[in-house]
Amino acid sequence: MLAYVFGLLAHRLRLQPLVGYLLAGIAVGPFTPGFTADASLAAELAEIGVMLLMFGVGLHFSLKDLMAVAWIAVPGAIGQIVLATLMGAGLSRVLGWSWIGGFVFGLALSVASTVVMIRALQERRILDTDRGRIAVGWLVVEDLAMVLALVLVPAAASIASGGTDVPIGRMALSLTVTLAKVTGFVAVMLVVGRRAIPWLMHHTAHTGSRELFRLAVYVIALGVAFGAAKLFGVSFALGAFFAGMVMGESDLSQRATEEAMPLRDAFAVLFFVSVGMLLDPEVFVRSPLAVLATLVIIVAGKSAVAWLIVRAFGRPNATAFTVAASLAQIGEFSFILIGLGIELDLVPPLARDLVLAGAILSIILNPLMFALLVRPTLVETPAAAPAPAPASAGHDVLVGYGRVGSWIGARLAREGRRRIVIEASDDGLERARGDGAEVVAGNAADPSILAEANLAEARRLFVTVPEAFEAGQVVQQARAANPALEILARAHSDGAVEHLQNLGADLVVQGEREIAERMIEHARAKDRRG
Ligand code: AMP
Questions:
Q1: Regions in the chain scoring below 70 on pLDDT
Q2: May I ask the CATH architecture of the domain 396-529?
Q3: At the top level of CATH, which class does the domain 2-57+69-164+264-375 belong to?
Q4: Is the CB of 409 under 6 A from ligand 1?
Q5: Could you tell me if 105 and 97 are in contact, meaning their C-beta atoms sit under 8 angstroms apart?
Q6: Where in the chain is the domain with CATH 3.40.50.720?
Q7: Which residue CA neighbors atom 15 of ligand 1 most closely?
Q8: 145 contact partners, CB below 8 Å, separation of at least 6
Q9: Residue 102: HSE in the Cβ half-sphere, 13 Å Cα cutoff
């Protein structure tokens, strides 16, 4: 409830809602007066959010996608982990900690948070683009590296403490076992899971019970994650990612699954609350300089390294900046690592406070990083652009180029009209380019993206995206930009029709009602003939 109230307040103050969620966490945490919530329960519920989130990402990912980005994600993530760890270790030397402590501290600063990254990419609709996939691939590699790190840290600790009882051989053995387990998990998923999961889904779909179907989705997402963690020592998030990837291969189950995912967002919010609960705000007063240095490493150091690596691989600036901004924060893995460091007596408790403060500040700053680094737009005019219509007639703007938008676009193309398409997914953009339209890549609800379509001079706007909230934002902004613009919008419920009309749409077409009308029309025509 507090997360909701604070989230609303943050929104009112033009801040990201997640700032409100974090504050809600601090408010119910043990370090502030008043009510104290159950921190371990909050963390467990947040874990469900992480699993469902990664499961959802997996749904949009195929093995092919993963392989396609591996050549940059693997060296990139490893290079970045090494360099970020060195920076963290450097800082910890200044603070007077041991080398091995510095190593753990640096590692903790080197991994990004799954939740923060995925939400950021989703919100800006970059998840399904080339640069979004590189960022996700990078995250997967980081996640795998951390599984190994959790094995290596205790071993390295006992060596560092002069423990002659841990021969290098044993360390190598435990590392090999871990690697074998991870490989085993991937192999099991690709061989068994790939057959069993789609089969299970289709079988369940045929029962005709929606309840059972939704249950199957959650059971597979959480079940595979749990099995991955218990049997193979892989993280929950990675397990869920693979479950999603395997399930997403069949189109039917993917569509249906997305409908069954509303729990995801609610639990992801709890992630931020649970992070807030861990923070002791006193650290800002006690060691402000150390907090600042930690923050600089996370926000500036890590993103600079990521940017350099992506550029070194010959990728464009837009990709490099997206990856850099995505990784300029830390989260769940950092807490686990630093907790381990404290347990093994490698770092003082201050290290945890620094990691937590760094995490919270970097999460709060993350939207700013995106605003600064990621230019959301990418406008191109095709080589074979049709002759522009006379300026007085204005151009047409299409928002969304999927099943609905591409039909309209093809018609307009035949009429030789100038079209600007705003689309978020690479597939849709590809289609629009193929049809000879000018394209703007990104989330149309984002004012800076919408501005690229030059609505003030447009003749007509087709809002063909299915989601009523986003469509509403587009309609509202468009109406403000051009009172004379003709706005046609798509809806899927009576509520959405009313919403869009109130915001200024001239025509709102309710998809389901049109389907019904056509069916009735057909039946009537048959009756008349019969
Ligand atoms: P369909 O439902 O097949 O007509 O597809 C809708 C299309 O709209 C898809 O290609 C989506 O990628 C695209 N889309 C959905 N929401 C947005 C948005 N907010 N901004 C830009 N494109 C969007």
A1: 162-167, 251-252, 254-256, 259-260, 376-393
A2: 3-Layer(aba) Sandwich (3.40)
A3: mainly alpha
A4: no
A5: yes
A6: 396-529
A7: 465
A8: 77, 78, 81, 111
A9: 17
Please give the structure tokens belonging to residue 417: 């009209």
- Give the CA-trace dihedral at 480, 482, 485, 487, to 10 degrees: -20
445 lines ligand 1 (CB under 6 A): yes
What pLDDT digit, counting tens, does each position of 158-201 carry?
777 766 556 677 778 888 888 899 899 999 998 999 889 888 88
pLDDT digits (tens, 9 = 90+) for 271-324: 889 989 988 899 999 999 999 999 999 999 999 999 999 999 999 998 999 999
Residue 434 CA to residue 382 CA, distance in Å, equals 9
Lookup result for tokens 């915001």: 503
Atom 8, ligand 1: which residue's CA is nearest? 400
Distance 410 CA to ligand 1 centre (A): 16
Angle at 324 between CA 321 and CA 326, to 5 degrees: 110
Report the SS3 class of residue 421.
Answer: strand
Q: Where in the chain is the domain with CATH 1.20.1530.20?
A: 2-57+69-164+264-375
Nearest to 272 by CA among 10, 57, 58, 81: 10
The DSSP code sequence of 439-465 is: EEES-TTSHHHHHTT-GGGEEEEEE--
329 DSSP assignment: -
Q: Which of 258, 259, 421, 423 to mutate to test the pocket of ligand 1 (most atoms within 8 A of CB)?
A: 423
Judging by DSSP bridges, how do beta strands 458-463 and 419-423 pair with one another?
unpaired
Q: Which one-letter DSSP state was computed for residue 389?
A: P
Provide the pLDDT for residue 390.
Answer: 46
The first and second tokens of residue 471, run together, are 């469509």
438-441/419-423 β-pairing: parallel
Pairing of strands 458-463, 438-441: unpaired
What is the distance between the alpha carbons of residues 50 and 45, in angstroms, rounded to a whole number?
9
Alpha-carbon gap, residue 416 to 466, rounded angstroms: 26
Task: Give dist(CA 126, CA 424) in Å, integer.
Answer: 7
Residue nearest to atom 5 of ligand 1 (CA): 402
**Separation of alpha carbons 262 and 250, rounded Å:** 20
Query: pTM for this one?
Result: 0.76
Name every residue whose Cβ is closer than 8 Å to that of residue 130 and which is 6 or more positions away in sequence: 319, 426
CA distance 400 to 456: 19
